[in-house]
Design a protein that fits this description.
Mean pLDDT: 88
Structural class: alpha+beta
Helix content: 25-40%
Number of domains: 1
Strand order of the largest sheet: 1-2-3-4-5-7-6
Number of helices: 5
Distance between the termini: 13 Å
CATH topology: Aminopeptidase
CATH architecture: 3-Layer(aba) Sandwich
């Protein structure tokens, strides 16, 4: 599995819409960076990052329904954490209405929305796209430039570090 930058806003928007995730602020000029996984050329999983150093907003994590339960979401999050740390981000934040337990299992912690850094509060995801009832979570990622992630065993592989 290769995780690669994704520049096609159309592909990303389609996958996010299929997963009922917000797409209103996604455009070629938005501050988002997307990374994804392809199968036979088609985008099957994606994650987005908005960087406001020393903070970052992890968002737009989606996996096509027929590719779930393969560990792609975990690997994309680990990749986003590593990429963020390598670019000077100390802490990642996210908002979710459905996946708080997933992120808690990855070491994220519930955070108070009123304690969010001003750059995160100013993001469209925080200020308008996600409802006030969304769980707000954070995780310190500084010093995690090469995390070891658990890979879903398809071929008996156990763990491998990201390059």
């Amino acid at each position: 599995m290769n995780i690669e930058p994704v520049s096609s806003i159309e592909e990303v928007s389609t996958l996010l819409a299929e997963n009922a995730l917000p797409i209103a602020d996604i455009s070629a000029s938005s501050p988002l960076q997307f990374f994804g996984v392809r199968d036979a050329g088609a985008l099957v999983a994606v994650v987005g990052l908005e960087l406001y150093r020393p903070f970052g907003l992890l968002r737009s994590l989606a996996v096509r329904a027929d590719f779930r339960r393969r560990g792609l979401a975990r690997e994309l999050v680990a990749f986003a954490e590593s990429t963020s740390a390598a670019q000077g981000v100390a802490s990642l934040f996210l908002l979710t209405t459905t996946a708080d337990q997933f992120f808690l299992g990855l070491g994220y912690a519930l955070a108070s929305r009123d304690q969010a850094p001003s750059a995160i509060q100013a993001s469209s995801q925080f200020s308008s796209l996600c409802p006030a009832s969304s769980a707000f979570l954070s995780k310190r990622v500084a010093g995690r430039a090469n995390p070891v992630v658990q890979e879903t065993p398809r071929d008996g592989a156990a763990q491998r570090p990201w390059p």
